[in-house]
Amino acid sequence: MQIENHTVSRQTERFQQLQNRLRDFWQNVDTFDQDDCDILVIPSFSIDQRVGQKIQGFLHYEERLLFSLIRLRNPNTRLIYVTAQPLAPMIIDYYLQLLPGIPFSHARDRLLLLTTYDNSFKPLTQKILERPRLVERIRRALRPEKSCMVCFNSTWFEYELSLQLGIPLLASSPELSHWGSKSGSREIFAECEIPHPDGSLEVRTIDALVKEAVDLWERHPQLKRMVVKLNEGFSGEGNAILDLRSLMEVAPGKCDRVERINVLQKHLKNLSFQAKEETWESFSSRIPELGAIVEAFIEGEEKRSPSVQGYINPNGQVEILSTHDQILGGPDGQVYLGCSFPADNSYRLRLQEIGLKIGQSLASRGAMERYSVDFIAVRHPESALEWSLEAIEINLRKGGTTHPFMTLRLLTNGNYDYATGLFYSQQDKEKYYIASDNLQKSQYQGLLPNDLMDIIAKYRLHFDSSTKTGTVFHLMGALSEFGKLGLTCIGNSSSEAEALYQKVEQVLDTETESMLESDELDFSSSLPISWT
After folding, report:
1. Which of 416, 413, 299 has the alpha carbon at shortest distance from 348?
2. pTM of the entire predicted model
């Protein structure tokens, strides 16, 4: 045991030493655009893979970090991008063509693409670690003193890969992952005195969950619904709604506590799950492993789901990056579908203030890199503030709003103005966007990345580097099998961004409907293909 503890202590010390390299040369969030460095991108969604499997096209979500290729606009930057399955060459070509003023071949020579050729649902970083020769190849390709690793979220897999490669991980240590969980978020909200729904901290058994739900109901007899959340859920897929309106016969004041507990425990099988095809058997089996919380569902006639994004640099300085209004879907509006930038003017400056306070709390614990905070906003027309804000959770990682904002920032070379909460291009034009990971229709299935490129060219759906407006696509690898596509539509106004999004959808509908309406192909008289 002493030997084990000594080994762990040495690893912790070594990991901290590597991260200290970042503090030695860090300037700001764009330091990698200004220095001669190697960036290793590991777009691993190191989450509970049973949650991941509920998301259609989940393996292709590795493509969300392909905005990192835009960093090759710096002629001194080298980049290694590792994926579980090979990326279509057309997808890589698409991103490299976005680079203004950089010859395609010059950027391509500084990009190394590697793959594990493993389509299992293990986290990508785990797949890499299971392939020592691949780890060695990555190590040989890097200049250790000028390298760092970036990832989607930081776990012990990324920690181990950082140690094996001898390069710093630009992310929080996995020792801090609790503060990005549902329960840890609630602790920080309470510490910072930020309004948030009443509820519980983490529990690991069904009995404890039921007890916390009953306690919550007894504190708020008027409650109509509660939310049960896996402590480490992703994009709302680990959420479920407990509807109390059908259980009024055991509401507080109408029966004793024992009966209320018994009825509630039986009713858990009737939860409204946000993930498709989720069941109580599957959901409950993960509670001992991942933990769960229960909290009050916020009701309201007019509700929104804004968020704020921040950045903690290696020196502990906190910067607000952006605010968004999130687009949610699923049975009860709990699942992330997309976002619009910036958040509504009525509350975006308040979001910034709260986000800064939470960022400072995270920084005091040693957190690093991106974080975001999700809220529920409820409109109260009679109130002076008009919108009330309640914090829901902290994401101590990159998220669904990271890639659209970084795409905007890297393509326009613009700046976020904290005083207004707006983003301005170098030409001092306000920039807005609508982004989604979920433009998905069954009729889009069968479209290849090359087909999408043909459609983009035909209808001029590309991003225009002269006006800094247009559409940037991602998740193109999910299009053929799942009919699913991601896009960021950038305009000089929110209405222009929305019009761009609608145009893309209309074009794709038109192109695919025409294929569906065409006569069925008759192969009865087809001759063998001749290559002569």
Report:
1. 416
2. 0.90
Specify if 525 maps to a domain: no
pLDDT tens digit sequence for 95-152: 999 987 888 899 999 999 999 999 988 999 999 999 999 999 999 999 988 999 999 9
Q: What are phi and psi of 166, to 5 degrees?
A: 70, 35
Does any domain span residue 178? Answer: no
The closest of 42, 320, 14, 37 to 171, measured between CA atoms, is 42
Reported confidence tier of residue 274, pLDDT bands at 50, 70, 90 = confident
Residues 6+ apart with CB under 8 A from 293: 182, 183, 186, 199, 200, 201, 202, 203, 212, 228, 229, 231
Output the six-digit token pair for 517: 């309406």
Residue 137 lies in a domain: yes
CA–CA–CA angle 66, 400, 69 (5° rounding): 15
343 is written with which tokens? 């958040």
86 and 152 together in one domain: yes
Per-residue pLDDT tens digits for 283-304: 899 999 999 999 999 999 899 9
Helix axis angle, 2-25 to 156-165, nearest 10°: 80
The one-letter code for the residue type at 302 is E
How many domains does the chain divide into? 3
Answer yes or no: is 524 within a domain: no
Report the half-sphere exposure of 489 (CA within 13 A, side-chain side): 22
End-to-end CA distance of the chain: 72
Q: Which of 308, 311, 309 is nearest to 31 (CA)?
A: 311
Query: Measured between alpha carbons, how far is 43 from 185 in angstroms, rounded to an integer?
Result: 24
Q: Which uninterrupted H or E stretch holds 508?
A: helix 494-517
